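We give the entry.
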Amino acid sequence: MQMARKGSSIRLSSSRISSLLLSMFATFASLYVAGRLWQESQTRVHLIKELDRVTGQGKSAISVDGTLKIIACREQKKTLAALEMELSAARQEGFVPKHPEHTDGTETKKRPLVVIGIMTSLGNKKKRDAVRQAWMGTGASLKKIETEKGVIARFVIGRSANKGDSMDKSIDTENSQTDDFIILDDVVEAPEEASKKVKQFFAYAADRWDAQFFAKANDNIYVNMDALGSTLAAHLENPRAYIGCMKSGEVFSEPNHKWYEPEWWKFGDKKAYFRHAYGEMYVITHALARFVSINRDILHSYAHDDVSTGSWFVGLDVKHVDEGKFCCSAWSSEAICAGV
């Protein structure tokens, strides 16, 4: 009898212990689940706040799509910051065109239509004076053309082989009076340097002016500003236009020939030039001038500047515009240029 009571007491005690352990386990489990739910709710609140901050759409329930948006925004922010750093470095290197200068806090100056580089030589003052008198102007009239027509014209010249000599000083004196030169100090003024001179002009002008077009001209032509403006206006929508009197022709390998090309062998067995703008004047767009500026150190120069310029655009997606108005032959009201 006592043994039965003792066994019953042990079973009751064991049952109470099991119930107590079960209750403790349930309590701990409840606390664990409540803790996880609280943690998840805090995470949800944080993500909602992040989504609200990033998207600006107000309070809304977070979703997987919303979480992915937050992650994507964070990644885009990092990418944008990296691109801004690269852009800043590119600007410092001159790979990106500068913004137009501001006239006040809100408005900007009108973007120039074209910068004309007039190739001239050390002894050509009479030709320069004729150009100034015929179409380019000086002083206030030069500035008026820039303001009203968006045409910036400058004589382009290198330095004497004997730097600092009387010819260099004469150019410096002339420029102090007219302020209409681009003087390329790293170019020697010589016929064999003509291609380098044109290349350096395009590079210098593209770095200085945010113009739509850049033109090379010689100092022995008259330029019709109105005809030039209307012709270029027709090509404003083409970012990579190369405009001029186009031709392709024979490459001369005889050293005594006027148009001798020392590197004639590069043009194949038929010795024929590729299509290029020749003559006294041709035009390239801003994007092409920037291309020349960026790659000036690796662009090859041939004996003649027009051939060299054409060679720089071979292989590029460039629109070659054969415009007879640039052939500078007989003068007419529609012609862009003619001899003076």
